[in-house]
Amino acid sequence: MLQTMARKETGSCAVELLEGEIPDHDGSSWVYDKLIVSMLLSREGFEAEGRDRALPDGDWQPIGTVLVTAPHREVIGRGPGGHIRALRCVFDPPRGEMAECLSALTPEELTRALRVEDATVHVLLRRILRELQNPGFAGDTLIESMALTLLIESIRAIRQGDRSEKRGLSPQHLKMIEDYLAGIEVGFPSVSDVARLCGFSTHYFGRLFLRSTGQTVGQYLANWRMRRAEMLLAETDLPLKEIAYRLGYANPANFSTAFRVATRMTPRSYRATRREAVAGTA
Q1: b vs e for 128-163, b when ≥16 Cβ sit within 10 Å of the residue's Cβ?
Q2: What whole-number distance in Å separates Cα of residue 135 and Cα of residue 269?
Q3: How far apart, in Å, are the Cα atoms of 126 and each of 47, 129, 194, 197, 224?
Q4: pTM (2 decimals)?
Q5: Cα gap 182→174, rounded to integer Å
Q6: Secondary structure of the chain in the HEC alphabet?
Q7: Domains in the chain, ordered, with CATH?
């Protein structure tokens, strides 16, 4: 049973933050009279797949972080239940060109809509969520405009397939990652932590990140860790034990080994060399 934790109605849609338990389902179906774009914010134990009723029984699609259900089209789902937290944008029945486009969607496109991994769609949903939870000036107008853009981008993603993988992560995603890492005081984030931040599965996020940056997420995080280590060694008097702790290493020995492999210097030698360089400049 899902409970509504927050809700905002605009001129063309209702935005809802939901949380609760989804029961086990095996071949159950659903039909809505409105178009709904949903983002799963957490899915403890919830894994499912679905397909359009018009498709053969074998054409199942894993249900992803973002899913779109078109009005008056029957979707069949199966999988274990679990606890979820989700953002849902429920749109009034589209008219004109939008309605014609939706009615022309093929069963294959509608099944693909159950796993929308387009970067623009994900960014818009995250931005709508932030405004719903922390409303600011002209919040209703902002949500309305973002929701309309979300509607258009969602339909484009369904019709054109996944464009995100071709162009990589958006600038907004890259900025989110930078801000997230800059705010870490203690510990070392995992690849799945960063992927979850951007709203993607770990595997899919890795492909997008590689296309955008030319390096794997693991390489990027390792380089970030070493840059932070160099800064702490050069700019603070913290003991190696404390630096190792802040960087998420199990002990100072592991930190020293990793630092020596990455820089060809021990942490103590690096600190001494940087101090001498600063003193010489002064």
Answers
A1: bbebbeeeeeeeeebbbebbeebbebbbebbeeebe
A2: 50
A3: 21, 5, 14, 10, 25
A4: 0.60
A5: 12
A6: CEEEEEEEECCCEEEEEEEEEECCEEEEEECCCCEEEEEEEEEECCCCEEEECCCCCCCCEECCCEEEECCCCCEEEEECCEEEEEEEEEECCCCHHHHHHHHCCCHHHHHHCCCCCCHHHHHHHHHHHHHHHCCCCCHHHHHHHHHHHHHHHHHHHHHHCCCHHHHCCCHHHHHHHHHHHHCCCCCCCCHHHHHHHHCCCHHHHHHHHHHHHCCCHHHHHHHHHHHHHHHHHHHCCCCHHHHHHHCCCCCHHHHHHHHHHHHCCCHHHHHHHHHHHHHHHC
A7: 2-164 (2.60.120.10), 171-281 (1.10.10.60)
Q: What is the spatial distance between Cα 138 and Cα 156, in angstroms, rounded to a whole number?
A: 27
Condensed to tens digits (0 to 9), the pLDDT of residues 242-264 reads 999 999 999 999 999 999 999 99
Model confidence pLDDT, tens digit, residues 135-148:
889 888 999 999 99
- Sorted by sequence, the CB contacts under 8 Å of residue 96 that are 6+ apart come out as none
Q: Residue 30 forms beta bridges with which residues? A: 75
C-alpha distance from residue 28 to each of 8, 69, 100, 115, 223 (Å): 29, 15, 28, 18, 47
What would the two tokens of residue 115 be? Answer: 């796993």
Choose the weakest-confidence range: 66-70, 192-196, 198-202, 249-253. Answer: 198-202
